[in-house]
Write the structure tokens for this entry.
Amino acid sequence: MTLPAPSGSPSTGRQVRPAGLTDQQKVADLIFFESHVHRHLDWRTPLDWLGSSPYWVLEEGHRVTAALACPPDPENIAWIRLFAFASHLSGPSVWPPLWNAARQQLADCGGATVAAITTQHWFDELLMDDGFDLAGHIVLLEWKDGAVDSPRLPAGVAIRTMRYDDLSGVVQVDAEAFEPLWRNSSAALSKAYEQASYATLAEDSSGVIGYQLSTGGSFGAHLARLAVRTDRQGHGLGAALVQELILHIQRTGGSRVTVNTQADNAASLALYDRLGFRRTGEQYPVYATVVK
């Protein structure tokens, strides 16, 4: 693969170039001190992605004043992990050179679906103006303290705490349960496991058939990931995993569980509704485009 050459204007001292590990402090300053910052909801921080590609920066003199990162993970799925720019710049002025460099790099590698979950209107407008399509919405649901039934499991199925050596089975379940855009790679699930405050799985004689990963503390939890193997869906395993999580949260003094899901995922919404989750009113658009 041939990288796009750094581009810039000698008269302004600006150049667009690939980011490197030595840019960590410069990119950190951009993220933490500027107001126009998009960060993907991720198990890895934007700084963790330095060294992966595409990751491009706009440099003025010795200062990084804009950055765009969208490394594919899993293969051919490239979420926009970071887009940020300094206050003296505008989105329409810095997005095109950074996005054109990243898009060319992705195309040279065989293409990818590029997506973003946005929380700020200024980024929505940039994506729509550049041909990204609205692919749906993410909605936030919440369960608050109340009675919950004990899990009812099919014969031969048990729920237990997840171990590191279970991850290969968890990865297989995840790949079966989700469409390509929403799958987690083995590396991402390993990170998720390391950061989870509570992780459990359902298993039978065939191995892992479902799992949940949650984050949070003493006041409650966020159900970050729930999946059941395709051939075992419809048997109450997802509900049982969530019920067991809620009972765990109650035992540890918590009274709240949140979860995000797709607004058009009728099965997921019905499951959470049955368990007493309610929409908070928060929702975030998902945009996507295909780079070839």
Notes: The chain is about 30% helix and 35% strand. Residues 218 and 253 are 6 Å apart (CA to CA). Residues 7-131 form a domain with the Aminopeptidase fold (CATH 3.40.630.30).
